[in-house]
Amino acid sequence: MEVNTDFAVVIPLANEEAEFAPFAEALQAVLTKLGNGSVYFVVDTVSKDNTLELSRQLSSRDQRFVCIYEPLNKNVVDAYLRGYREAYERGHEIIIEMDAGLSHDPGSLPEFLSAFAGGFDCVFGSRFMKGGAMPDSSLKRKILSKGGTLLSNFLLGSQLHDMTSGYQGFKREVVKQVLDYGLKSKAHFYQTEVRYLLRKKKWTEIPITYRAPSPSVSQNSINNSLQLLFYYFIKRISFRASAIV
Hints:
Blueprint: E1 7-13, H1 17-34, E2 38-43, H2 51-61, E3 65-69, H3 76-89, E4 94-97, H4 109-117, E5 122-126, H5 139-156, E6 168-171, H6 172-181, H7 189-197, E7 203-207, H8 219-237
Parallel strand pairs: 1-2, 1-4, 2-3, 5-7
Antiparallel strand pairs: 4-6, 5-6
């Protein structure tokens, strides 16, 4: 399956040395199959192993890979946005984000591109719709992810099967609007915030399998998520609901 659409994949990396080789090989195989695509690795000072050097070595061997070192990042949201900005400035038509370490399957990229070919502005990966799964997750992690989706849909009036997945993609013009908007999230609520702000776009969900999640979510991340969830809830019920249109 070859595609003509110029697309990019943005992937923040931190301490991925152990899984770097199989992950990179899986990405290379998919890009070769599609006959197109670029990958932007974003590495910052959170990474303490050889991830940065491995990323630089790969980018020197394979021009489809770009290594971005950004020591000024303050959090994971900065890493995502830094990658989005680079991909946008290089003119890619579709920009997709995913997690490293094979948590997200590069083999799902053709499904994202097929959905965009159907005319959608945003394509969101879902673990909780038919065909989706998170088999390696603890019960606590599943409850946190599913509970976050249910609470977000209830408070924000959204209707997605999965409000917290980090496998998602956008058309170029949507990325520009996100970059210009100025997100409030500093941690994992970023995924939910983006979905809420883009609720008026033409979007769809596709099933994904999420593997090998981090063993825990920090209390600071949970606190940030709850604060912003209620911030947007108050704006919604006071008829000042935010949206990127």
